[in-house]
User: Fold this.
Amino acid sequence: MPKSPTVYDVASLAGVSIATVSFAFRQPERVRESTRDAIIRAADVLGYVPSGSARGLARGRTGALGLFSFDYLAEPADRRKPLTALNDDEESLRFDLNEEFRLFPLYVDEVQRGFELECWHRGLALMIGGGNRSSSEAVVADIAGRVDGLAVFPRTVPEETLRRISRRIPVVELSEPSQNGSVVNHVTVQNAEGMRLLTEHLIATHGYRNLHFIGALVTSDSEARFEGFSAALKAANLPAPQRPTVSSENPDHIVWLISDLLNSGSLPQGFVCATDPEALDVIDALSDMGVDVPSRVAVTGFDGIAAGRIVKPSLTTVRQPMERMGREAVSILLERLGDADKPRVNRQLPVQLVLRESCGCSIRRPSQAPA
Amino acid sequence: MPKSPTVYDVASLAGVSIATVSFAFRQPERVRESTRDAIIRAADVLGYVPSGSARGLARGRTGALGLFSFDYLAEPADRRKPLTALNDDEESLRFDLNEEFRLFPLYVDEVQRGFELECWHRGLALMIGGGNRSSSEAVVADIAGRVDGLAVFPRTVPEETLRRISRRIPVVELSEPSQNGSVVNHVTVQNAEGMRLLTEHLIATHGYRNLHFIGALVTSDSEARFEGFSAALKAANLPAPQRPTVSSENPDHIVWLISDLLNSGSLPQGFVCATDPEALDVIDALSDMGVDVPSRVAVTGFDGIAAGRIVKPSLTTVRQPMERMGREAVSILLERLGDADKPRVNRQLPVQLVLRESCGCSIRRPSQAPA
DNA sequence: CAACCGGATCTAAGCGCATTGATTGAGGCG
DNA sequence: CGCCTCAATCAATGCGCTTAGATCCGGTTG
Assistant:
């Protein structure tokens, strides 16, 4: 690019000072109309686009919010096999057996969308970064340095870094706060309550009495869900496990775990999973072993991702108001831009039970008006 | 926030000059280890996070790419009815009749995802903005001022603005270039070719001879698709219409249009639509009028969005390599960051025919190995 | 006619960092 | 023991913009 024009160039071409050029754009009413026109014309001729960096520096705020998300590329390789396959050109024109939908609109993506929409709606720009625990430190600081407020997904940024950043700008974490209090704001959903309702449904409606909880308890959200699960069992006078059947984050573990249960003849009546992706992995594993879902074993998830309605059987789950979570995050940040030490909040949003096929419910079409 | 610390604060606490602080972070090898440690410790104590604006200003580049997208909120109201309904809390726990999936992972979202992944992969931050023709002018300039390269979706930014921005930073438009040459780079797909293949399939495999093309020709992409459609008809010695049955962008128009055809008894054997969303609207309209798809009329789309596999009947379409388009955009921008006047490119990517139910093809499960 | 006033414009001082060229000092060499 | 070299550090400048305060000027007011 041939050296982009600056206020100085515009000013000299228009025959005014740089201050006037700046005013012409930021406070047009302060500048006489004729001069303003001249300035705009000069800017047009030169192709002037003001530098965001310079503006941000001078004003002390950037007018942008940041969101730090997962980087899918950093996930274990086997998780993104479908993606790789997709890039294979010679497979063009094949039947659509790709399973990319299992990876794309995930929980984070829908939350992110809400964040975007709300930012745009309020005239803010949005800076997005991605990474995982390891990569993040530098990357997240990089982003934090360019925005007026930051939202992060759990497990993307070490708490220490979060604390440091929150001394500079407001920060909100999109998860249940960990038990030992948190240094930042939070947007949560009714994790425990939602899972309790779902479990109750399995017990009351379907009469299941032997349920397993599957999920890597890597976030406070999953933990809260496990507690909701346990609470429902206790309320029904069923034995509640001390710990869930942990699956770690490797999908293979789910396969091993289930084949163990199958071989030992101790398959439960239902698997209650901490998240939708885990539930989908469980369904896959069961299918591969010839175990029918839901007639032989029920499976449920938690999230409400798109893939849950695409797979067969469709997934019974608890839907989080993902888009709205993103919106709330923006709103929390905005409220805190001005006054520094507004108290931290934890805004909890309602969830919604979504009954589909995988729990044993048949498909109904309630949209048909009863005659 | 209590006034965030700067290099000056860190420098004085560590007892060095600001230059050394800067070096400690940017070129660690230039600083003796002991001093570096002292500096990092001081930075820790103060909670120092370098200002992106200042850095950007000083270095002359920001290390971020921009993407300018549609703002769904700016769409006609009736298009987002499902969204509104979703926010209604009292509807919690209802059966999942919401149709949000019709709006979310659309074409743009998947392209955007590719853009994000590629940026992160290369260690770049990403700034996203949204708007439509009207709102954009200022917003897009705002973003253009903060990034080193910009990608835009068609119809989001007036060409004049695009030209101006491209004098400052490299720009790539995610669409077929318009016939009269373009001032920016492009990432395209085989629009015409893909549509030709699809139409051929309808003619050859299903024997349809009376097809209508439906689509608002608001982008060069849609135009190219129409040309592909016409080409296939001509090749089969079928009469090709001069113009498509335009639907404008108001879904109601599709309803009117189809009810007209129905009332006059001139329903074709198939509707070939310019995009998936339009095809879904057509299917909806037909269903509402009691016309079965595909037994009575076939319908096809173009895009490959997720909703196409969720709806009944599932949508036959042409799938664009959306994620890859985003990736290519990043790659094009990056190649042009250094050398200013590298020639403009138009990188065309392959598409893929996806045969599902709505064209009359039955569901096959090719993954089953033949015995 | 002088003092005054308000609108339009300008001068000048940063904003926080990167970076060039200068400075310092310790070790190497003859 | 003096001179040179090189590594480590520093002083100073500029990046492009915003904005408080100064200035200028034509028009008012008494």
In short: Chain B touches chain A through 85 residues (CB under 8 Å). Residues 6-8, 18-19, 21-23, 26, 50-51, 53-60 of chain B lie near DNA strand C (CB under 10 Å from a C1'). Residues 76-97, 364-371 of chain B have pLDDT under 50 and may be disordered. The first helix of chain B runs from residue 7 to 14.
